[in-house]
């Protein structure tokens, strides 16, 4: 981590509409507040959406790795911090830290962002002028996330992309993918398990009007209180997103 990089924090009180039936913050809600923190930092550094959009560019997330000690709970006042740690020719690396008021770490997130040309929808090389205010470290190495195992005998469920699933980049907001990934696991599973770790990669944009197929399977680990779920989201058999999630029993 580059010690010169700027860390930015916001406070957030967990509302009931951000929680599940167990009064834990949901993963989509967590992601949305995380991104709010990063967007506020960009605005603070005069590198917000208005700045990059006038260059006909937009930020796109390609990876998250999420480690959970515990999810925030209803009514808690939580600190969401973010730090743009490093970048290379095409990838920008940003970390997030979610802590309670006493400073206890609840969730740690590593993420990868790229810059997309909004006309061609293709990835652009990182512009030094855009990234400079974050004071992150320039590196040559490409950081690798753990490779995900293929699905062997998955079940599947379809979802239609709705208007309000689309964000200002005119594609599905990343938080929406988690609804598709998790919903297929069902009420009984989701009400009796909590997330411990997530590894997710976004491979292709999904647009308004697409019908996505959410594929999934589960596997009991050597620790009988833990289960791994593996996921793929496809449009017309084309892979758009894949994930592995480690769960603990409540």
UniProtKB/TrEMBL annotation:
Residues 7-134 form the Acyl-ACP thioesterase N-terminal hotdog domain. Residues 152-249 form the Acyl-ACP thioesterase-like C-terminal domain. Keywords: Fatty acid biosynthesis, Fatty acid metabolism, Hydrolase, Lipid biosynthesis, Lipid metabolism, Transit peptide. GO terms for molecular function: acyl carrier activity; fatty acyl-[ACP] hydrolase activity. InterPro entries: Acyl-ACP_TE_C, Acyl-ACP_thioesterase_NHD, FATA/B, HotDog_dom_sf. The keyword Chaperone does not apply. The keyword Cell membrane does not apply. PANTHER family: OLEOYL-ACYL CARRIER PROTEIN THIOESTERASE 1, CHLOROPLASTIC. This is Acyl-ACP thioesterase.
